[in-house]
Amino acid sequence: MGSSNRFEGAFWGIDVGGSYTKIGLIADDRFRLVDTIPTGEDCHPVDLLEEVSRLILANDPMPAGVGLGTAGLIDRSAGGVIRFSPNLPLWNGVNAGAILRDLLKVPVVVDNDCNVFAIGALNSRLIPSEGLWLFVTLGTGIGGTIINQGSIVYGTGYSGEFGHMTVQEGGIPCPCGSDGCWERYAGKQSLEWYYKRLNGIQASPREISNLASLGNVQACEAFREYGRWVGIGLANLANCFSPMGFFMGGGLSATLNHFEPSAQQEYKRRCKHGWNVTLLENSSVSGAFGAASMASRQC
Ligand SMILES: [Zn+2]
């Protein structure tokens, strides 16, 4: 790193994903991505966190604080222990917060990727700081965040696991140990399955979306089925929380126009709340930006 990349006392964000780890910072009210490091299933947490720490200190010898976001169950009360990591098995049980604090000697906060994304959206004023809102990410799994008056509601620590509410007793088995979880019906694989069931063709959500845009009957039907399950889950959440509305993120949210009609129809049949769903655009740096925002709010 050249001297032009030097920063002083910045808030840093680390987004540890299943394929890449992204590191960036907020400087002059702007987010800058500094580096991307490939990660994979065999990525050892200590090795990665040492590499990330070296990178941060080379750019900013005295960071003000560091935020880290990753998928899974994060024990914040224990200082940032990753209790369960769906994509990075070697990270299970690792106290990522303690390791980073040790390496960097600065305040560190750790949270799950969905909460971190929501904190970034709060920071950018995309999610209002008044009222109760629910944030739902539709991707391989379904993530969730409960935001009340601009703060995340954690319960005893692990709230927002919307993807694992049961929508079908005795339904499709879930890696979590349960069956009939919402994310087995409204996750990425479900859309692919609804399409494949109609014509035997394996296609990605993007391909199915392109076909639906062209009016392909089977692609449209797959989205109708997918939307019904999205609507069932959102109605359950609305009945429980009575939110002002929903924000939606994750890869599949980009196809909302295809599944919104059937989702809305199912939703209105199952709850008395208005349909208020707003898309939050994902970018490749949303996670790292959210993590840096979290550091700026909490460190
Ligand atoms: Zn589950």
Structure description:
Helices cover 38% and strands 22% of the residues. The model has no long low-confidence stretch (mean pLDDT 95). The protein has two domains: 3-118 and 284-298, ATPase, nucleotide binding domain (Nucleotidyltransferase, domain 5, 2-Layer Sandwich), CATH 3.30.420; 128-279, Nucleotidyltransferase, domain 5 (2-Layer Sandwich). The two termini are 26 Å apart. Strand 2 and strand 3 (30-38) form a beta hairpin. With 299 residues, the protein is of the alpha/beta class. The protein has a five-stranded mixed sheet. It has a five-stranded mixed sheet with strand order 11-10-9-12-13, sandwiched between helices. Helix 5 (188-199) packs antiparallel against helix 7 and helix 7 (217-241) crosses helix 8. The longest helix is centred in the C-terminal third of the chain and has 25 residues, at 217-241. The protein has helices at residues 45-59, 96-104, 113-123, 183-186, 188-199, 205-213, 217-241, 256-270, 286-298; strands spanning 11-16, 20-27, 30-38, 65-70, 73-75, 81-84, 94-95, 108-112, 132-138, 142-148, 151-152, 245-249, 277-279. It has nine helices and 13 strands. Bound molecules: zinc ion.
